[in-house]
Amino acid sequence: MKVAFGMKAHSGWASLVVVGSRRGEAVLVDRRRVELVDESWAKQPYHAAERLPPQDASHLVARGVAMAQRIAVREMRAAVERERARENDVIACAVLVGAPMPDWSTEEIVAVHFRMHQAEGVLFKDALMRAATSLDVRAVRVPQNPLAWHWSRSAGCLWRSAAVTAFLTGSLALALIAHPPEMFVASVMLFWLACAYRLRRSEPTVR
After folding, report:
1. Where does residue 168 rank: exposed (0-12), middle (13-18), buried (19+ CB within 10 A)?
2. Predicted TM-score of the model (pTM)
3. Which fold has domain 2-201?
4. Where does the pLDDT of residue 170 fall: very low under 50, low under 70, confident under 90, or very high at 90 and above?
5. Cβ(31)–Cβ(195) under 8 Å?
């Protein structure tokens, strides 16, 4: 079965949902939380570097970025191997992304609190995109849609919101790549309806 990964990044982790299509029907193959750091400070490396001298701050941020990229590759490889064990073909990894960020230096970022949040959001999204590309999985950037996020929040608690959003992201990539263009809109609509139904009926835990 052809499947796609849908991923929504958070501070130090990501929601991963694996979406498949069998005989035209949406299939929720897997859902889990993926850790992207192994030290707590690296969840917010710019915040951790805020009060350090410029050179030390740049060094710490570089360590955090390298950690996120290394772990993202490890977790992406594990996800691909799980799907191969299920005899599934991973055709894409879709990552929900926001607006691009100016090419600020670390010193410029830590000088403004909002910029630190923005940079940390971009950091983990980019780590996921790089990981997919490094493993020859087609990486798809999906612009974050505030309406979809608002709708997903209505599905229930926070973990479920993240899972719904990741499912929407993966289903969009799967419909775009696996289905003919004339079926694209219908495919996406069906996948999203199935998403809401399946996630509302699922167990309230994240694996």
Report:
1. buried
2. 0.77
3. Nucleotidyltransferase; domain 5 (3.30.420)
4. low
5. no
